[in-house]
Amino acid sequence: MNPEYEKQLEAAIDRELKGLGELSAPATLTSRIMRTLEQRAALPWYRRAWQTWPVAGQVASLTALLVVFGGVCFGVVGLLQAASTTAPAHQIGGWLTGVGAVLKTPAVLAEVAVLAVRQLGMPLLVGCIAGMILAYVACIGLGTVWLRLAVARR
Amino acid sequence: MTDAQQFEAFVRDYQNMVFSTAMRLLANQSDAEDVTQETFLRAYERFGELQGSATLGGWLKTVATNLSLNHLTRYRSRWSFFSEMMRHGEEDEEHEVEFAAADNTDDALTQSERRELVEQALQKLSPKERVPLVLYHFEGLRYEEIAEKLGVSLGKVKTDIFRAREVLRRKLRLKLAEEPR
User: Domains in chain B, start-ordered, CATH in brackets?
Assistant: First the structure.
């Protein structure tokens, strides 16, 4: 690219853009902002942002959170200890059964897919998948149109 | 004057600046209004500190810019595909209408019409071209700062800004001494 041309282009565009000045905000914007502030001020303190709560409220909520968190931690540790001392082998066996069932799921799904292909035939399955993709794309498209219409109306 | 009245006067003084910043980055009036409102709501929380501060204008611009960029990041990935499709369609149609009549746009248009035309051309740019261009020319950021802010490479920023300038040059029929090679 020609550096001299780039310089001239930058200067020309800069001149055009700097010459624009400020845009005028809509006349209703100030009243909208003030109205929102009034609405916020009318809210009870506990429904406002946590940062704006009274200090006592902040301290109390933080303390309550710490107590709950500590309680959960102690509870979990206690449960694990109780499980390990009472019936460890049984407990671990139970977990492994659950893990085994989860691991079997993909194999079962694959078998179902093979059976479906045999019973229904490939064209029907491809059609179903294509239909699902089409429906998904239609949802996105309609959603986009709805959003743009909603935004344009505001 | 009560606090509320002081703040209202403050909003009136700065709303055009904040709105312009948001509008040029977002190219969407209702989004720009939302960002402007959010900027002033944040300013209200720190109004005591900000009042009389020399950096007040800069603070407002920075907050408006960051909120606009956050807004773009949040919604861009979700809607860009369809938005871009619609935008290109609109662009092609309007190009014919706007520029077919006059060969020398400067002579044919008044200054306010010219400004309107530049604003429209700016808003018709795709976000990936418009945003770095606005950050460079209006917000005075350097290429490196823009790359950092947008999380893209320096080369991409330079390319996008160059493309955006080229689009504007063609739309505004700017004549330069040098020709592109």
Answer: 1-79 (1.10.1740.10), 101-181 (1.10.10.10)
